[in-house]
Amino acid sequence: MTARVDHIQGQTFHGRKGAVQNRFRYSIDYVLCDAEAQNLAKPALFARNAAGLTSLHDKDHGGAPGQGRGAVWVRDVLAAHEITGVARIDLLTQPRVLGYVFNPVSFWLCLRADGALIAVIAEVTNTYGDRHSYLCHHPDLRPIMPEDRLKAAKLMHVSPFQDIAGGYVFRFDIGAERIGVWIDFSAGDNGVIATLTGPRAALTNRRILWSLLRRPFGARRVMALIHWQALKLWLKGAVFRARPEASLADVSRDSAHGAADR
């Protein structure tokens, strides 16, 4: 069976909470595909585990950056946490552009045979090269609905202008025509709200070329924008925090198995 690669022509929003205010909204390109599919219906300008104008490589995900194992790693994580019934694993991420990639956050979407989303692994990477993943699911593995909010304690340093202490609340709305992800980080009176939303359609050569014309350089552009926003925060007086020791764990989940009240 052939699986298609989808393109998310998305919008990302970040809004900082606390004494130092900052917010921005940018357009961004993600792809979504079955990470275990042997046959992908993909355009010529997109490659899988090979060089291409745009591409998706297993080694970029599912483990330390550059040493990933792709969906095999996800299967190991699911087994270690006794999560059963996952028939398909989709990866929602930014692709490589001309061989370069940096993803602040990618999402492993774990679905049952009927298409219900029952677990998500949010794979967070910082600009220092550290990575930690947050496993989100209900204790009874019931489907994750758009109104559900799933908690996780923050364990990895992401922004030098935010404490490592605090927690995330995730919300996912993954539909056939549109996706939405909301992440609310809170630490006392401070924090950040981050979102990713956008329509979902089959990836085509035309879409790839149009995206590169509108948003050139892919993840290089994202990295430049990250540093631009960091400079703005510093000029506004935000306190710089030195990078602490990285968490030794690859994956964590909330003590209540990621469940929060609706």
Strand order of the largest sheet: 12-13-14-15-2-3-7-9-10-11-16
Low-confidence stretches: 258-262
Helical fraction: 10-25%
Dominant shape: globular
Give me the number of helical elements: 3
Instruction: Find the count of extended strands (DSSP E, 2+ residues).
Output: 16
Order of helices and strands: EEEEEEHEEEEEEEEEHHE
What is the typical, i.e. mean, pLDDT? Answer: 90
Distance between the termini: 37 Å
Major sheet attributes: 11 strands, mixed
Key terms:
mainly beta; 14% helix; disordered C terminus; 3 helices; globular; 262 residues; eleven-stranded mixed beta sheet
Write up what this structure looks like.
- The protein is mostly beta strands and about 260 residues long.
- The protein is about 15% helix and about 40% strand.
- It contains three helices and 16 strands.
- It has helices at about 70-80, 205-215, 220-235; strands at about 5, 5-15, 20-35, 40, 45-50, 55, 90-95, 95, 105-110, 115-125, 130-135, 150-155, 165-175, 180-185, 190-200, 250.
- The strands form three sheets. An eleven-stranded mixed β-sheet has the order 12-13-14-15-2-3-7-9-10-11-16, with helices on one face.
- The N and C termini lie far apart (about 35 Å).
- Mean pLDDT is about 90; it is low at about 260.
